[in-house]
Structures are given as C-alpha cells and as structure tokens.
Structure prediction request, 422 residues.
Amino acid sequence: MTDTWPAPLAAAPVTGRVAVPGSKSVTNRALLLAALSGGPASVSGAPATRDTALMIGALRALGVPIDVDGEHVTVAAHDGLRGGGSVDCGLAGTVMRFIPPAAALADGPVHFDGDPHARTRPMGTILDALRALGARIDGSGLPFTLEGTGGIPGGEVVIDASASSQFVSGLLLSGARYDKGITVHHDGKPVPSLPHIDMSVAMLRTAGVDVDDSSANTWRVAPGPVAAHEWVVEPDLSNAAVFLAAAAVTAGRVTVAGWPEGSTQPGAEILAVLAEAGCTITPGTDGMTVEGPGTLLGVDVDLHDASELTPAVAAVAALASGPSRIRGVAHIRGHETDRLAALATEITALGGDVTETDDGLEIRPVPLTGRSDRPWKAYADHRMATAGALIGLVVPGVEIDDIGSTSKTIPDFPGRWAALLS
Prediction:
C-alpha cells in the first residue's frame, strides 16, 4: 500500500472478542519439519501471511511438493531436497535463518536473496556455522549461493547467537538429517528469545528427534529421521498483544479467543506486562481477557526473552501516566528495522519524550499529538505499523505510511482492527 492509512480513533473503550491468526513461529517450524520428514505431513491453522507464503515458496524451491487449501497445508511424500532453485527470503527471519541449513541437504546449488533491508540483517553467524559443518557457501550475507551436495557431515560447532535465537533454531531444526547430527555451543552474551529455542526443541521432540538441552548454552541433536506429523498451529500470541493492548490504552475489555493453556510462545509475556500497567487479566473458556484500567501505569520490564513485544509495549508506555523503561532488547536493532531507533523517532515525532539506552528505551509521559506533515513511519516493519495503530486509538490524526506491511504476519489487519472498534 502506498497511501497513508488513517489510524481509527476509539470513540469509546474498545470492547470485543477477536480471533488472531496462527503463530508464524510455530507455522514455519512445522512447515520445515514436515518437509524434512519426507511426508506425507500436514500443518493446520497456518496463517495466510507473507511469512508463511515465503516459507512455502522456499520449500517448493527445494523441490518439496506442497498443497495449500486455506489455512491447511499438506506436504506430499517425496525423496529429498533438490537444488537448482532460488529462495526469496523477503523479510522473514525464519526463512533466511532456517532454510540454509536445510538447503545444505539439497543435491545442487540454491541461491538466496530477499528484500533490500534483508540484505542488512545479520547472517554471518549461520553461514559461518554451516561452513564449519561442511557446507560450501559463496557469500557472507544476502544474496548468497549454497552449493548443496546432497548431505552434510554435521558435528560440533561453536557460535555467538547473541544477535538472534534463530541462529540456534535454524541449525537444530535440520540437524537430525546431518550425518553426525549436530551439537551447537553458544559462546557470547545471553541468547535473546530463549523461549523460541525451547519451541524448536519441543517441536523436534514431537517429531521423534532426540534432543539434549540439559547443559546451559549447548544443544545436541542426534542423527536420525524426522517423523511425519499432523501439526496444529495455536494462535500467535505476539500478534494478540496489540489487540489486548487496545483494551489497556482505552480502558476497554478485549478477549482473544483460543488462548492456549500452556505455550512456548514468548508472546505470552504480554499478560504480565499489561498486569504491571494496571490491567486485569482473566483467563476463561472463551479465551484470555484483558480489561484496561482507569489510569494506565508506567512499566519497567525486561523483554530480552520476548523482544518482539517491544513495539506494542512502547506504544502502551507512550500513553501511560508514569515513566516506563524497556530493557534487555539491544538485539532488536537488527530486526526488520532498528526498532529502538524507529520507536524513539516516531514517538518523539508525536511530541513524546523518549530516550534510547544501550539495551532499550526510557519513555516519559507527555501528551501526544498527531501530525499532518508526516505520517507514522512503519519502516516496512509489521510491528512498527501495529504500534502506530495502537497509539492512534488515543491520539487523533495519526496516519501510518505502510499499513500493508502488517500482511507479514496478520492477514487484513486494517479489517480486523476496524471490526474490533465497531
């Protein structure tokens, strides 16, 4: 979309019930494991988002027979991965970090590229690790070509995964298909978003893979088959965050349907953050309900393990009655955009008082005002766009320059947002 999108202003407390699409993180792991199993396998509840489409396109480029019927994806039986194709990573971190370790099993060259900003995202860690494990790769970042030889020795590798947990997950997910399996040792600052690695480990075990994560900063995957499975994807709790936050900032009441009783998704941490902001959290048979307070409180939160929540939490903090601090998220400077700089710039442009720190943001309460001379910039980042929509519920005149970027993880976000306000 090239036209700006006027963010709807909430004329009253937002109340309603919303069903959010399936988890992108679970979906793309399930699709890859289904492909590595050799099929037949299936994934139900896969959201019709750009990231899902990019993963399906990548697997098809490796010769995997895939059929898509709405949110149900079927992987037919096949005899392995093929080379000779090209993979479009778009801006999907799960594609650019998960598919190269699988492509090392292909029987020919595989070329990788993506959106312009994807070429600036950290890739050296995963590519150097694959070289150390026996792969041949031309390049140190997008675009690059991996020369698949039909297999890879595997074994032990030491990496610094402090920039992204996806480096670990990407290696683990394909590691069982390597001749020696894989052992990944992390050496560096703490790995961000550890729950995402826990998710990968849990899903590998569901697929019958032997994984040992009993030692800190070390993960061992034994060589062996990946079992075919019928995967069912739970709602994306990180995407749910912005809908629940709508209740928080408008003193409303919003229920997200289908909230799982237990989840490895880091997005579940939004409940604790909103509770600290003064919200009432009520689980029920119909979903998870958040009721916003009369006075929204500032928060002091470490989002190291749930950094994808930072834009939504920053938007809530910008509308709170007291100062807030977000910590532990230095690594999100390397996400779809430098999210810390982007949030500071856009909130400040509305009159906000924001300071970037080494690992986060400090946000102080001041009245915000929409501007006619510049839109809220999304930076082609879906979570920046939804953060702008959240602020626009309370601040008149907020327009977003690229609401279409939300299609990365939420189909028809504008329609879902409008429905919640109607």
In short: The chain has two domains: 5-21+235-421, 24-221. The mean pLDDT is 96. The chain is about 30% helix and 20% strand.
